Amino acid sequence: MRSRVKALALAVLIGPLSPMATGADAVKPAPLPYTVLSPATIEAAVADLGHDPNLGGQTRIRTLRWVNPSQPQPPATAPTWIAGLFDYLGQFGGVLLWIVGAVGVAVAAIWILRLLKSAAPRTDPAQPDVGDRRVLDLDIRPDSLPDDVSAAAMELLRTGRLRDCLSLLYRASLSSAVHRFGVTLSAHHTEREVLKAVKVALDEAHARYFTDLVAVRQRVVYAGEAVPPEAVLPLCGAFSTYFDAPPP
């Protein structure tokens, strides 16, 4: 604004000095000598024009500026690979959370299932009726046997009924193994399976007696050998030691 006022004042000062035409027939005057305006003259003209109300005077314009000459810089943008890393970690964390949740549900289900099984009442497997128990098509019911098996076997041996003597000892041994010692036998077992089950369930002395009895019986029944009574008599006497029920 101040520069415009100075320019206007300079034009006012120079205006009277410029040549003016007096008419069509006027004679062109000679050029005036060059006049140099001093700064003081210009300043005085500017001051006079400044008081002129038609020029508008001075106008104040308010603007905002930083108090601190060093303006704060915006935060620097993180590198792309760091942003990608955090994005990947966020996605992986979501997947990991789902996996941990699934494993937790599975563990809880297994724990609840085991808890229910442990709390459920246990039922013992049904045992076959001892009244109808038969092994190898032999009746092994205790009440089907004589009270003194050893004495009855010796009497059969004395009368020459070797097969009946060995059959009685074999039946009585099986009955004692099942009802006294708890050996698990069933009707479909073979002689070999019966021998194996008795040897596994009983101690060495009982298993040896039963093995000797089976060997002699097979020789007589299947091989048809004529086994002397002296070889069978020890089996008759030892039955009461290994397989007879203990006295009440």
The total strand number stands at 2
Which value, in Å, is the CA radius of gyration?
66 Å
What's the overall average pLDDT, rounded? Answer: 77
Number of helices: 8
The neighbouring-strand order within the major sheet is: 1-2
Kindly state the percentage of residues in helix. 40-55%
Say what the CATH topology of the domain at 132-242 is: Four Helix Bundle (Hemerythrin (Met), subunit A)
Query: What is the H-and-E element order?
Result: HHHEEHHHHH
Shape: rod-shaped
CATH top level of the domain at 132-242 is Mainly Alpha
Topology at a glance:
Blueprint: H1 2-14, H2 39-50, H3 80-119, E1 134-135, E2 138-139, H4 149-158, H5 162-179, H6 191-201, H7 204-221, H8 229-242
Antiparallel strand pairs: 1-2
Please summarize what this structure is:
This protein is mainly α. It has helices spanning 2-14, 39-50, 80-119, 149-158, 162-179, 191-201, 204-221, 229-242; strands at residues 134-135, 138-139. Among the domains are: 2-55, no CATH class; 132-242, Four Helix Bundle (Hemerythrin (Met), subunit A), CATH 1.20.120.
